[in-house]
Amino acid sequence: MKTLIMLLALASTAMADWKNEVTPAKLGSHPKLVPQEFEYRLSWKGMVDAGKLTFTFGKRDPKFPSDYAVRVSGGSTGIASKLYKNKVAVFSRLDPATLRPRVCVGVQDEGDEVNTTRTTWSGPVVKSEQTITITKNGKTATVGSEFKFTPVHDVCSAMLHVRSHKLDDGDTLVLPLQPFNRPYLLRVHVQGREKFAGRDTIKLSVGLQKIDPNTKALLPYKKLKSATLWLSDDANRIPVELRSEVFIGDVRMTLAGAKRL
Question: Any signal peptide, and if so, which residues (predicted)?
Answer without folding.
Answer: 1-16
